[in-house]
């Protein structure tokens, strides 16, 4: 009678890099849930930006300023940014675990991945949350229509 191989031996754990089964289960569940939410967010984003109105020709500073003047769009874009980076980072973590066989290589790659994900989330968050839709010295023809009422 054949039995399944024992994947919990120390040799297998070191080679694959996957040592915590419960953490891998949560990682698997996160990928499924975040993927489903990302599909909804991305298709909403594409529909609003490309299909409604004048299509891609409407996307300029005023369009983005008008969207980000609404708190809902800021939160939707922030959620999309964070989920996309964590989802992609988790996928890259799995690839690193599968293909980086040396511990030092795996450690370096995981560190670079963690820094890259954190930097993109921080910089993207700064853009979303500190964006000024009505800059003082901007050309009024480039600003959204609601900026004239704010300045007055």
UniProtKB/TrEMBL annotation:
<keyword id="KW-0349">Heme</keyword>
<keyword id="KW-0408">Iron</keyword>
<protein>
    <submittedName>
        <fullName>Succinate dehydrogenase</fullName>
    </submittedName>
</protein>
<feature type="transmembrane region" description="Helical">
    <location>
        <begin position="108"/>
        <end position="131"/>
    </location>
</feature>
<dbReference type="Pfam" id="PF01127">
    <property type="entry name" value="Sdh_cyt"/>
</dbReference>
<dbReference type="InterPro" id="IPR034804">
    <property type="entry name" value="SQR/QFR_C/D"/>
</dbReference>
<feature type="transmembrane region" description="Helical">
    <location>
        <begin position="72"/>
        <end position="96"/>
    </location>
</feature>
<dbReference type="InterPro" id="IPR000701">
    <property type="entry name" value="SuccDH_FuR_B_TM-su"/>
</dbReference>
<keyword id="KW-0812">Transmembrane</keyword>
<keyword id="KW-0479">Metal-binding</keyword>
<keyword id="KW-1133">Transmembrane helix</keyword>
<feature type="transmembrane region" description="Helical">
    <location>
        <begin position="29"/>
        <end position="52"/>
    </location>
</feature>
<keyword id="KW-0472">Membrane</keyword>
């Amino acid at each position: 009678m054949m039995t399944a191989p024992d994947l919990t031996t120390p040799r297998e754990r070191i080679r694959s890099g996957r040592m915590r089964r419960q953490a891998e289960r949560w990682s698997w569940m996160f990928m499924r849930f975040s993927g489903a939410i990302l599909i909804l967010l991305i298709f909403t984003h594409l529909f609003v930006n490309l299909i409604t109105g004048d299509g891609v020709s409407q996307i300029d500073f005023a369009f983005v300023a008008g969207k980000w003047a609404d708190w809902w769009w800021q939160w939707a874009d922030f959620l999309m940014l964070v989920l996309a980076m964590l989802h992609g980072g988790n996928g890259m973590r799995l690839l690193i675990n599968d293909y980086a066989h040396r511990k030092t290589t795996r450690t370096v790659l995981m560190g670079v991945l963690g820094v890259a994900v954190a930097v993109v989330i921080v910089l993207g968050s700064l853009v979303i949350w500190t964006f000024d839709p009505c800059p003082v010295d901007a050309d009024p023809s480039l600003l959204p229509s609601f900026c004239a009422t704010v300045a007055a």
